[in-house]
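Can anyone check this?
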Amino acid sequence: MGAMTTKTIDAAVLDRSGDNPQPYAENGAMRMARLELDPPGPDELLIRMEAAGLCHSDLSVVNGDRVRPVPMALGHEGTGIIEQVGPGVDTFVPGDRVVLAFLPACGACVPCMSGEGYLCQKGAAANGKGEMLNGGFRLHECDHDVHHRLGVSAFASHAVIDRRSAVKVPADIPAEIAAVFGCAVLTGVGAAMNSAKIRPGENVVIFGLGGVGLAAVMGAMASGAANVIGVDPMTEKTALAKEIGAHGVTPDDLDDAIAQIMPGGPDVVIETAGRGKVLETAYHTARRGGRIVTVGLPPPSDPFTIPALSLVAEGKTVIGSYMGSAIPARDIPRYIALWKAGKLPVEKLVSSTHRLDEINAMMDRMAQSQGIRQIILFD
């Protein structure tokens, strides 16, 4: 198990959720900090981080779209090597390679017992407070606590996580690829396979072609969709959708594309942009009887308005999808197997790699919709 001692680590810390003027690289929205990390407690693991991906939900905490308690060590998508295991852990050993999942499921609440661990009540409450699943904090600076980001805080050299946030994966996957299975792939592919339950031969439209949206494109195609249209205003992203094998169009060209490619309208529409107006467009885009899945995380004040009558008269179904309705321990190995079989070209999501101290410039690029998944690589 190894000696249980406090560890000094490097981490990217956010002191204000919102009120961070751009460009972040000039104004220093996040700062590099030396933090004290407690040893793993019962049911916890100490992880040496190998790689972490920047997700739009991290940016939403920086820009204030989703206000969270601070100071907070950000980052929730990553992979690393177990260095120590806490008391009571018998399913992992030091040296195991794991992908981190951003919602630890307690296993005892009603959603967990119903097979819906992605809706875990205890895990969601802990994540909202910036605490660990077992309560409290493991990160400290100058005698005060530092909040955890979704029980992970991956923008750091090391992390203590709950064992239920870890999924063991093969050691031969490049770290920058393994990292994106923890959020982009889990959420996007899961939205297509678990939430939408796309059937072979169905037509699918996906709004938003960031990491999650492009993963949803891959998931739709791996599910046997007849036609997939990816929609994004950025032509470099629609080009990547085409490279994957889908149709990529800008919003202005969507109606013509649907008329030509799927004249009956799409059976499934997946919204990943995180905007109420885009979700409204997604709803109206679906055919009568179609399924609309929403994955994006809009600001809490952003409304979604539809004619109430249409839900009955058009027989449509709106499905909320958190974490791709996934069970990480079940789905991450499945998706890795599909990647190894060439059915999920996940490597195409990785647009660049960086050092931890480049995090603010990375945030600037994300705010400008540049790139897909920017990955931090640790020594």
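Reply from J.R.: I decoded it. The first helix runs from residue 24 to 27.
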